[in-house]
Amino acid sequence: VLTLRDRPVQDIMTPRTVVFSLNVAARVGEIREQEDIYYHSRIPVFDRDADDVVGMVHRRDLMAAMARQQFDATMESMMGPIDFVAGTMGIDR
Q1: Which residues contact 47 (CB under 8 A, 6 or more apart)?
Q2: How far is the C-alpha of 36 from the C-alpha of 16, rounded, in Å?
Q3: Which of 5, 19, 54, 73 is the most buried (most CB within 10 A)?
Q4: CA 17 to chain centre
Q5: Nearest CA to 50 among 84, 24, 81?
Q6: What is the pTM for the complete model shown?
Q7: In the 8-state DSSP scheme, what is residue 27?
């Protein structure tokens, strides 16, 4: 029996070094050729560096912007809030 109560969130988190993310200033036209945007439904958006996550953009919103030819739209204009979870918090929370 798997007991989630006893396991911290960090046990199931994806390491930052393998997370695909986008810069807040990146434009739709600049990223549309990056294959990784098609493999992830939610993409973290960072500001100064990869540790400075400020939001998240949904793949469906990127695809919609491409379909509407909104190639100048930035990730900042498209991103939504992101929930931050302490790695030490229990999985069952």
Answers
A1: 23, 24, 54
A2: 15
A3: 73
A4: 13
A5: 24
A6: 0.82
A7: B
Give the CATH fold of the 4-78 domain.
Answer: CBS-domain (3.10.580)
**14: which strand partners?**
none
Alpha helix locations (H) across the chain? Answer: 28-31, 59-67, 75-78
pLDDT tens-place string over residues 14-57? 877 888 999 999 999 999 999 999 999 999 999 999 889 999 99
Q: Is residue 92 scored above 90 in pLDDT?
A: no
Q: Which residue in 90, 10, 22 sits closest to 50, CA to CA?
A: 22
End-to-end alpha carbon distance in the chain: 18
Cα–Cα distance for residue pair 25/46, rounded to 1 Å: 9
Q: Which two tokens stand for residue 42?
A: 């939610």
Calculate the average pLDDT of the chain.
89
